[in-house]
Design brief:
about 450 residues, 16 helices, 18 strands
Length: about 450
């Protein structure tokens, strides 16, 4: 089961989901830590701990001040008064009560106490540092930069993530440069043409994760795109920040009813997950607030993080970069929210099964070695082998719930939008790039368009 599942994910889900889920969720799984002058603040179980709400990092007020050796005088309305170095200091700050504990934005401690507030993204640590005493030595004083230290998250920053997760593709990380060895050939790939009412639609099958060996593309791709009035993709992943992505995950992919992950999956699945997390430096239980589909997505992307395939080199990413450079308008056939909603609506049984097989396959493949199935899929794309692509596409049909949600229903929605482009008039050219697995089979976009009366030609 799991083998075809991983293939299909790489062929049908927007590259943004595959690119950002691992670092963003790994960061979120590790709890926030507060240190005062390098000493960790221990918060009592049940009395609250640092959290992020509405893109603001909140910290318990009274217990944090106590750890700093500062006495809280009063906190009411939007005003806080404390005794700092023998003097009464008052600042304005929004107070938030969570389970009976008063929280304030992390910046409040800098304003109230004069401490420096910094953030270490690598360890997810908030550091509160008091002003150093005036040195009595005449020796020159030097300081060393703290690794990954930046300004602590405040009202204007969201859930912190690692730098690698938050940077958009650039010239050095997106489409691979051409090499003279393959410049005249390139991979065949999958592209079809449909014409109607003076309009032309090119349909391109993407692999959402790729590498240098896919480029340069055949000249037919470049020529067709050079005349495009619009680029169409499943989701314009360049528009969504990591903060927005994680906020969607927080809203849909975490439990809001007081239950946790072990309440929803089999004991064997949970045991395998704990073993995997501990082996990768994450405490067992740190992902308990997430639903199985979120954890499975994290594991999928983390397992391929060190492979030669990456979302930044995906076919859709390549053309999104070209569109930005040429000012070609980008239209979306779906949305990131709709794709996440689809995963969230999988039945509990299916979510458990997908997570179990993801973990089992990691064990069988030496804990995350690149699955050679991805190499086979890449070869299918490069050779333009429709028979093999069809085989991959239909391999999930033995799980009707998965197949219907992942392919059938989405294909109908995308085919209807393409039908609208063809009927719109205006002599426009559309260059549509969606996952290759969406095109073939009786439920595929090509067949759906043919049923509507269009002629589809392989290019």
């Amino acid at each position: 089961m799991r083998k075809w599942h991983h293939k299909i994910l790489s062929l049908v889900l927007a590259a943004g989901l595959l690119a950002t889920s691992a670092p963003a969720l790994a960061s979120a799984a590790q709890p926030l830590t507060v240190k005062v002058n390098d000493k960790k603040v221990e918060y009592r179980t049940g009395s609250g701990a640092p959290t992020v709400q509405q893109k603001t990092t909140l910290v318990p007020l009274r217990s944090t001040l106590k750890a700093m050796g500062i006495t809280l005088s009063s906190a009411s309305g939007n005003s806080i008064t404390a005794i700092v170095n023998g003097k009464s200091v008052t600042v304005k700050s929004k107070l938030t009560k969570i389970n009976g504990v008063v929280y304030v934005p992390i910046r409040t401690f800098g304003e109230l106490t004069g401490y420096t507030v910094s953030w270490n993204a690598k360890t997810r640590t908030i550091q509160l540092t008091s002003a150093p005493a005036v040195p009595v030595t005449t020796e020159p004083i030097t300081t060393q930069p703290v690794d990954s230290a930046t300004t602590a998250p405040t009202d204007s920053t969201a859930t912190p993530t690692t730098p690698a997760a938050s940077t958009a593709p650039t010239d050095s990380s997106s489409a691979p440069a051409a090499t003279t060895e393959t410049a005249d050939t390139g991979g065949r790939g999958f592209m079809w043409e449909v014409q109607a009412n003076g309009n032309t639609v090119y349909l391109v099958g993407s692999m959402h994760i790729a590498n240098d060996s896919f480029y340069p593309l055949r000249k037919e791709y470049e020529e067709a795109f050079s005349q495009a009035d619009y680029l169409g993709v499943e989701v314009d992943v360049t528009k969504t920040t990591d903060e927005q992505f994680f906020e969607q995950i927080r809203q849909m992919g975490t439990y809001q009813d007081g239950s946790t992950l072990p309440n929803h999956i089999a004991a064997d699945t949970y045991a395998k997950l704990g073993k995997y997390l501990q082996a990768n430096g994450i405490k067992s239980g740190d992902m308990d607030r997430f639903k199985p589909w979120v954890v499975e997505m994290f594991i999928d992307s983390a397992a391929t993080a060190n492979s030669s395939y990456e979302a930044a080199s995906g076919i859709d990413r390549y053309f999104l970069k070209q569109a930005a450079e040429r000012n070609v308008p980008v239209i979306e056939l779906e949305s990131g929210e709709s794709q996440l909603s689809m995963l969230n609506n999988f039945s509990p049984e299916l979510q458990d099964a997908l997570l179990y097989f993801a973990l089992r396959d990691l064990e069988e493949n030496d804990n995350g070695k690149q699955d050679e199935a991805i190499d086979n899929m890449a070869e299918t794309w490069k050779t333009g082998n429709e028979a093999e692509l069809l085989k991959m596409t239909t391999s999930s049909a033995d799980i009707p719930e998965y197949h219907k949600a992942m392919l059938v229903d989405r294909n109908i929605g995308m085919a209807n939008k393409i039908d609208g482009y063809l009927k719109s008039g205006g002599n426009k050219q559309y260059f549509i790039v969606v996952g290759a697995a969406h095109y073939l089979s009786d439920d595929g976009i090509l067949h759906l368009l043919e049923k509507k009366g269009y002629t589809v030609v392989r290019k």
